[in-house]
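User: Second chain of the day. Same drill as before.
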Amino acid sequence: MVGDDHHLPAWTGKDVLKGAAAVAVCGDPAAGFSAVSIDSRSVGADDLFVAIRGEAHDGHRYAPEAVRRGCRAVLIERDKVDGLPTDRWAGQGVFCAAVADTRRALGDLAAFHRNRLQARVVAITGSNGKTSTREMTVAVVSALGPTLAPVSNFNNDIGVPLTLFRLTVDHRVAVLELGMNHFGEIARLTDICRPDIGVITNVGPAHLEGVGSLEGVQKAKGELLERMPPNRCAVLNADDPRVLAMAQKTALKVLLFGTGPDARVRAEKIRAEAGRLHFLLALPSGPVPVVLNTPARFMVHNALAAAAVGHLLGLSPETIRAGLESFSPVKGRLQVLKTDGGVTIIDDTYNANPGSMAGVIDTLGQSGAARRILVLGDMKELGAEAESLHRGIGKKAAESGLARFYITGDFADAVAEGAVAGGMESKKIFCGAKPDILVDLTGFARPGDWVAVKGSRAMKMEDVVEGLLAFVGKKQRTALPLAGGADHFDQK
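Assistant: Same format as last time:
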C-alpha cells in the first residue's frame, strides 16, 4: 500500500472517474478513500484497489479478496466486469469503476495526483548512475524540506505512479528515477510525472535488446526532454557526446555539468585519497571543495548532476556540499564493505551493463590494493551485441592487473576469451558456477585484497558477496591454508 500519510489530499470516486476517464459500475461516486493500492494482501478499508493485469498475475482475481478485507473502492477493466460480483458489491456500498486498461489508468491517476500538488518534481534517467544520482539529489535537496523518493527501484510505469501516490501537501520536492527497456516508456513516465527538472546522466549500451543500438538508447532517453512541459530545465552531461547533442536540440533551458570548460557545474582537481574522492565543485554561484564517500571516480558525474539540481532549486554552494558529503552508497550500488578478515569488497551487484562494468573495473584498478580480484556475471538485455560486448569487458578487465578473474554465466567463455586476448594469463581466469567460484575465491583471498563483484540483476551476484562476507568477515582465526602458500586468514 502507498499513500498512507495524514497530509495526503482526499480522493473521491469522482476523482477516479475524471482522472482515469473511468465509468462508474456501482456505488456512490462521492465515496471517499485516502490511498491507492495494487496489493490485495495489504489493502485497507480506506484504499482504492486497482486490479492490475500483469504477465504472471491478474489483480482481478484478488479484487473480491480486497473487498472481503474491507476495501470500499475498486478499479477494474471493462472486460472483467461481468466476471466479478459487482451486484453484491453494490449492496455492500462498494464503489467500483471500470477502464479499458488499469495499468494505464494507474499512471493517469498518478498524473492527476501530481498535478494537484505544488512539489517540484525532478526526474532522472540515463544508462548508468540513475539510482546513485537520485540518492545524491535527495541528500542535497532535502535541505529545502520534506522530499519524496522512490522505495527501492520503483522506476517503471507501475513504480513511478506508486511513488507519486505518496506525494503529500508537505513535500517540497519529489525526486524520481525513470527507467526504460523499450521506446515510449520514458515518454509515458514523463507524461505522468511532468518534471520541473529533467536529468540525463549518460547514454550507453544498456537495454539494446529493446532499442537496438546506441542511437536507439539516445532516442529513448531523449523522450524525457521531448515530453517535458515547456519552460522547464534540463540538467545534461556535457562530457557525454550523445547527451550534449540533446542539449543542442532541446527548447528547454539547459544546465550542463561535467569536467570540461563548457560545463557550468564543473568538477576540478579530482583526486582519490583513502577511499574517498576529493574535488573542487565549481558552481555558477561559487566554488566549494567536496569530499565524496566513495572511491569511484565516475561517481563525480552523479554528484555534479545532483549539485546542478540543487543550484536550480536555489541552494547555496555550502548547502549543496553538505548534502553531497552526507551521501552513502546504496546497498549493491558500489558499496565498499570492509571485513574483519582484512578483505575489502566492492559490492556493485544490483545490475550491470557495459558502462557500469567498465566503471567498477576502473574503481578496482584505482584502489591501490596489491592484489585485485574481480568476479563478474552476465550482462543481460544486450541483444545481438551481447557476445562482443562481453568480450570487450574481458579485454578491459585484463588491462587492470588482476590477481584473479572469476566469471560466471552464459557469456563466461566470451569474457574469458576477451581477457586472454587482452594479455591475461589463462591460469588467472576461473569460469564456473557461483558456488564453485566461492570455494576457489575463499581459498585464494587474503588480508589486503580488494574484491569487486558485479553482474546483472538476474545473475544474483550478491550471493557471492554474502558468501565471501560469511567467510572472511569473521574474527575467529583458524589454520586454513590459502592458495599459493599464502598466510592463513580469518574464518569461522
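Confidence is low (pLDDT under 50) at residues 1-6, 474-492.

User: Great, on to the next one.
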